[in-house]
Amino acid sequence: MSSNDAGVRRGSSTRRAELKQAYKEKPPPMGVFVIRNRANGKVLVGTALNLPGMLNRFRFELTTGIHRRWPALQEDWNRHGADSFSFEVLDVLPPTEEPRTDLKEELQVLEALWLERLRPYGEAGYNRGTG
């Protein structure tokens, strides 16, 4: 191996470390999401401090059949299949320079707005509540 090869390898490892650090410093998008069952029109509205992570978790749990919190959603997933569902981000909390005091409270306010708008209860959705 030439000294040039070692420099390239060292450079790529430095770049990888820089990318990893930048990822750690940038918080993931947080906000409100919806899972839509296109076969029957039902929706599930939820919030997450890490939207990509939460949507990946839902996909994984539904695909493996271990989703326990929303049994009706799991039943429909099993009945209609993955291709009948879409995972969408409805709203994202914009990043701010100043620290937020209560992110969960802000998410609850956003979620309440979307719950009022979509009314995902009973025959219209998987959320529990009035409807």
From TrEMBL:
Residues 1-24 are annotated as: Disordered. Residues 15-24 have a biased composition (Basic and acidic residues). This is GIY-YIG nuclease family protein. The lineage of its organism: Bacteria, Pseudomonadati, Myxococcota, Myxococcia, Myxococcales.
